[in-house]
Every structure is written in structure tokens, then in C-alpha cells.
Specification:
It is a single chain. The chain is an alpha+beta fold. The chain has 2 domains: about 1-105, Pseudouridine synthase I, catalytic domain, N-terminal subdomain (Alpha-Beta Plaits, 2-Layer Sandwich), CATH 3.30.70; about 110-245, Pseudouridine synthase I, catalytic domain, C-terminal subdomain (Alpha-Beta Plaits). It is built from 5 helices and 10 strands. Strands 1, 2, 3, 4, 5, 6, 7, 8, 9 and 10 form a 10-stranded mixed β-sheet that branches.
Length: about 260
């Protein structure tokens, strides 16, 4: 049996999330079905993170076990052929040791959230960004985000359905940048941590949007955090602007590419 690491890109719109569903399409189900075209199944793959319905990925990582001695490039090509027409692509593939695990070997997750500020409906980025019709104060949002950096009890920013054993996490970075273009001004939030709670990123971005439009002060973010109460959280933003951007490991299984 040979273990392979897969780096995966997908558009989350058509899926009920990453995790296999009995009666709904999922990213995991699409990839496992493609694997079954290459070797008799059943196949069960494990991922670095379980993204929710509508959430996208630029650098999700999963692993699979196969009997055949596949050359990684050929396996990537074969999977991409059988994944058509689903909006899922294997962008890298590598052999890994039998004890390597996409989830448990990971030491960092990076998320990207895209927010577009314009009144006209988005066309090219429909389903790929969160659109708000007003301008936001980036400096105020950065000041609010600064209260969240470090080791904290993130109960306020945790879904009631979160299954994590503890709400205590270390948030390593929240970077907010603005890009102006013909399609409108876009804010990009980049969050980095070893692991995240369920809905943590969307809860944080939704809360910071409230700061950006002046409904909250940056200090209100600190008060919400120390309350350790889900009711103190700002609105949870929609999933379509969220991307699992990258997953970090002690040694990159895909090498420098």
C-alpha cells in the first residue's frame, strides 16, 4: 500500500462541504469516486480541514492509500480526468511515508477571506466574494483584529456546533489589505493559526466588518473576546468569500514548486 499526499483546489459552491454526505454532493465524495475509477474501492481520504458548504480551497491537502505504484504526476492527471466536470482539481501529488497524515501532521492552516465593497452586483466574482455596499475603515478593522492575536479563549467566535475539545487557540496573524481595481475595492483578510474552531474565521471577519462600518469600536472586539459568550459575537459572514489557502507541514510534502 502506498500513501499519497494531494493538494486540492475547489469551488465550494456546488458542494455541501468537504465531508462526504449520504445524499448531497461533497468534495471528499467527488475525489473518492475518482479514486474508485482507478482502483477498486471503497476509498476513504483524510483532509487537513473540513470546509463548510460554499467554502472554497486554494490549497486543501488530503492523503489517500493505493495498492498500485503510481507515479505521482500520472496519478494527478488521472484524478483530474475523472473529476471532470466537478470544479475540483488536484494541483500537486507526492508520495509520503505511511504514517504521514494530512490532518495530524499539519502545523499550520492559512485562510483567505475576500470582501468586495461596491453597490453594483458582482458578476465575474459571483459566489467567490462577500459583497458589502459600503466602504470600510481598514485601520479600525486592523486595530480590532489586534485584540485577537495570540492565545485566547475564542468561545465568542466559535460555532455552537463546534466539536473541538477546547475553545482555547493561538491566532498567529490577521492581516488585512486593500486592493483597488475596476471591479471595486477588495479587502483581503489572511488568518494564520495551527488550527481553527468551527466558524471562527467567518465569525471574526463578520465582527471586523461591523468595526469597519462604524457600528463597533476596535475596543468592542476586545470586550466580545473576553466575554467568552457566543451571544457577544458580531454577525457571522457568508461562506462564499472564504478560502482554505494553504496548509503547513514540518517538511513540505510537495517540495518547492
Amino acid at each position: 500500500m502506498q500513501r499519497f499526499a494531494l493538494r486540492i483546489e475547489y469551488h465550494g459552491g456546488p458542494f455541501a462541504g468537504w465531508q462526504r454526505q449520504r445524499d448531497q454532493p461533497s468534495v471528499q465524495g467527488a475525489i473518492e469516486a475518482a479514486l474508485a475509477k482507478l482502483e477498486p474501492g471503497p476509498h476513504t481520504i483524510a483532509a487537513a480541514g473540513r470546509t463548510d458548504a460554499g467554502v472554497h480551497a486554494l490549497g486543501q491537502v488530503a492523503h489517500c492509500d493505493l495498492e498500485k505504484e503510481w507515479e505521482p504526476f500520472r496519478l494527478m492527471e488521472a484524478l483530474n480526468y475523472h473529476l471532470k466536470p466537478a470544479p475540483v482539481a488536484i494541483t500537486a501529488c507526492a508520495r509520503v511515508e505511511s504514517d504521514w497524515h494530512a490532518r495530524f501532521s499539519a502545523v499550520e492552516r492559512r485562510y483567505l477571506f475576500r470582501l468586495v465593497m461596491r453597490r453594483a452586483p458582482v458578476t465575474h466574482d459571483k459566489g467567490l466574494v462577500w459583497q458589502v455596499p459600503h466602504d470600510l475603515d481598514v485601520e479600525a478593522m486592523r486595530a480590532g483584529a489586534a485584540h485577537l492575536i495570540g492565545l485566547h479563549d475564542f468561545t465568542t467566535f466559535r460555532s455552537a456546533m463546534c466539536q473541538s475539545a477546547s475553545p482555547v487557540k493561538t491566532l498567529d496573524a490577521v492581516e488585512i489589505t486593500r486592493q483597488d481595481g475596476p471591479g471595486g475595492a477588495e479587502l483581503r483578510f489572511r488568518l494564520r493559526a495551527r488550527s481553527f474552531l468551527h466558524n471562527q474565521v467567518r465569525s471574526i471577519v463578520g465582527t471586523l466588518e461591523r468595526v469597519g462600518r462604524g457600528a463597533w469600536t476596535p475596543e468592542d472586539v476586545r470586550r466580545a473576546l473576553v466575554a467568552a459568550d457566543r451571544a457577544a459575537c458580531g454577525p457571522v459572514c457568508p461562506p462564499e468569500g472564504l478560502y482554505l489557502d494553504a496548509v503547513g507541514y514540518p517538511a513540505d510534502p510537495f517540495g518547492a514548486d
